[in-house]
Structures are given as C-alpha cells and as structure tokens.
From TrEMBL:
Residues 174-323 form the N-acetyltransferase domain. PANTHER family: AMINOALKYLPHOSPHONATE N-ACETYLTRANSFERASE-RELATED-RELATED. Keywords: Acyltransferase, Transferase. It comes from the Bacteria. It comes from Lentzea cavernae. Residues 6-80 form the ACT domain. This is Acetyltransferase (GNAT) family protein. Pfam families: Acetyltransf_1. Gene3D superfamilies: 3.40.630.30. The keyword ATP-binding does not apply.
C-alpha cells in the first residue's frame, strides 16, 4: 500500500542539492508529486510531496533527505489538496471563509497547512493570528505562510459595501446597494415588471423574458460593478458601471421599472454611479442609446451632470462627465423623519 507524505526541510543553497534529494527518493521507490521552494530569512525552505512505495516508512524518507544534507526535516501525511499550487489553495480557502465565516478556522488551517487552528490564546510553540491560534508540530510556520494567513483575515474583516439612502421628490425612500449573485431572483422579477419598450430601450432587442445567464452577468459583470435601487422588498432599478478599453472611460447603463420612471430614480442611480466612477478615477461615462431615445440625457441633467451626444454606428453615444453631482443623498435619519 502506498502513502503520500509531505516533507519540509532546509537544504544548502548549492547546485544540484535538491536534485540529489529527489534522486535518492526515487531510488527508494518514491515518486515526487509536487515541489515548493519558500523564501525564509537567510535562505530557502524546500517542501516536497511524495508518494512512497510499499513498505517505505516515514523514517526512511527522513533519513534519505538527511543523507543529502537536509536539516530540520519535518514530515506529515499529505492529501490531494497539497498537490494544488499555493495561490490556488489560498484563493479556495478565502472563498470558503467568505461564503461561511464559521469556517474561517478551517480556511486558516488549509492556508497554513496547520495541525489545528482554534480560537483562544496562544501557548508556547503556537502562533496567534487575531483571535485564532495555529499549531503545527511537524514544521515551523514561515513568514510567508503567516503573511498569507493574515491577508486572509484582513480580507474577511474588510468593511461591507456602504448602503446609500435616497429620498425622492415624492417622498419615496430608496436604498442603493451593490448587486450580487444572490439578487438573481429579485433582478429577474424587475425585468418581468418592465414593459417590452423599456427592455428594448435598454437592450436594443425585443424580448419578453431575460435569459437566466444574462441575469447573473448583469449582477457580476466581468469588468465592472452593479448597483441596485431597492424600495421596500423590491428591486426597482439596476445600474451598471463597466470598464472599457480606454482607461479613463467607463460605460454606464440604467434600467428603471416602468412604475418608477419619471420620479427621479434614474437620476439618483446615475448620480451614485458617477460618484463611484470619480472614486475609481474615471473622467468620462459613456452610454449607448437608440437615436430616438433622449431619456438618459434628461436623466443626466436632472442629476446635475453634463452630457453631450453624437451619432455613432447607428446609435446615440452619450458622453457624461462624472463631476460633482447636484443630487443630494439624505441621511437615514432624515428619511425616517420624512416617511413617518
């Protein structure tokens, strides 16, 4: 029966040293599956994952490494996750923790290849990372590993996207927030409440329903962001800000439910997108409209944004300068006071 092991050791920085270790392991009927070289103060640390032949003991592997000059040799059982490159493993661990914060300890253990990660205070031989304590008996933690683990914790502690409150002229209250894949049903419902004319003006094609794959792409565009306008428990408008091939230019688009049009929703949403564009360093927003459609120009004017137009490729190209927006966003307290 073969067993997979993970070995970590220090080796002299001389030509052929690591090759001699792998040759000796091969002579012991071991197959090297993965190799990592990690920088440490004063040199490097080598790590290999090997599948040992039948009857080969962990002590045999340690002796083989030490015979070729390996020092501080540590060994532990390995699994298939150890065959994944470290950046990929770290990204998968981050996804696990972000999807379920209760699995943060598990994610840290995977990033650190630790024996255990628990909440509490560190004792001798353990490492403290925020509220977490990491322990590993088979090898010391490297600074690279600890930095990677701390970066994971920093990512999880990043502040949630800020919700923005808006009060329309007729007293209706909106919340502007980033869209996410969890909003697919709400955005699909938004499209179902829009007329064919509204959908045609937005997508420039006739449709009665929006394909599900489009909904996901609207909420998680590959090169941009989506912002939703929500009233009560319904999403009533959707805006997108998409990076273009021109670094200082972003494409903007809006979709407002028919029942909420001409009430300032589009201007409020466009103002929020313009603020996001300014923060990202964009100096121009571009939108593409049908030649007969002038609603976006009026929306920009209502938002206090300068816009110019020109015909291009059979469409109306609207160029908007994301300068200081005249639309003001009230505080949540002001909204609560006016809506009592």
């Amino acid at each position: 029966m073969t067993t997979t092991w993970r070995l970590r050791f220090e080796l002299s920085d001389s030509p052929g040293a690591l090759a001699r270790v792998t040759v000796r392991l091969a002579a012991a009927d071991c197959n090297v599956l993965a190799l990592h070289v990690m920088p440490v103060p004063g040199g490097v640390l080598d790590e290999i994952v090997v599948r040992a032949g039948e009857g080969v003991l962990p002590a045999d592997l340690v002796d083989a490494v030490r015979t070729e000059g390996g020092k501080r040799v540590g060994i532990t059982l390995a699994d298939m996750r150890d065959l994944v490159d470290e950046p990929t493993a770290a990204l998968r661990a981050a996804r696990t923790a972000m999807a379920d914060p209760s699995r943060t300890g598990e994610a840290l253990r995977r990033v650190l290849a630790a024996d255990s990660v628990t909440a509490g205070e560190a004792a001798d031989g353990q490492v403290q990372l925020g509220e977490w304590v990491a322990r590993r008996g088979w090898a010391r933690f490297t600074e690279v590993e600890l930095t990677r683990a701390q970066a994971l914790l920093d990512l999880l502690e990043a502040p949630a996207p800020t919700l923005r409150a808006a009060l329309l002229e007729d007293g209706a209250a909106l919340v502007l927030r980033p869209g996410s894949p969890s909003d697919e049903d709400a955005v699909a419902d938004l499209h179902s409440r829009c007329s064919m004319r509204t959908l045609f003006n937005r997508y420039h094609s006739g449709m009665r329903t929006l394909p599900r794959r489009w909904v996901h792409r609207l909420l998680a565009p590959p090169r941009g962001t989506a912002v939703l306008a929500q009233a009560g428990d319904k999403v009533v408008a959707l805006g997108q800000l998409i990076h273009t091939a021109t670094p200082e230019c972003a494409e903007v688009s809006l979709l407002v439910e028919d029942a909420w049009q001409r009430r300032g929703v589009g201007a409020t949403l466009l103002g929020a997108l313009a603020a996001d564009a300014r923060a990202a360093g964009f100096t121009e927003l571009v939108a593409w409209c049908l030649p007969s459609e002038s609603a976006l120009v009026r929306t920009a004017a209502r938002a206090g944004l300068q816009a110019t137009t020109r015909r291009e490729d059979g469409l109306l190209r609207v160029s908007i300068t994301p300068g200081t927006c005249a639309v003001k966003t009230p505080s949540a307290a002001a909204i609560a006071e006016k809506t009592r």
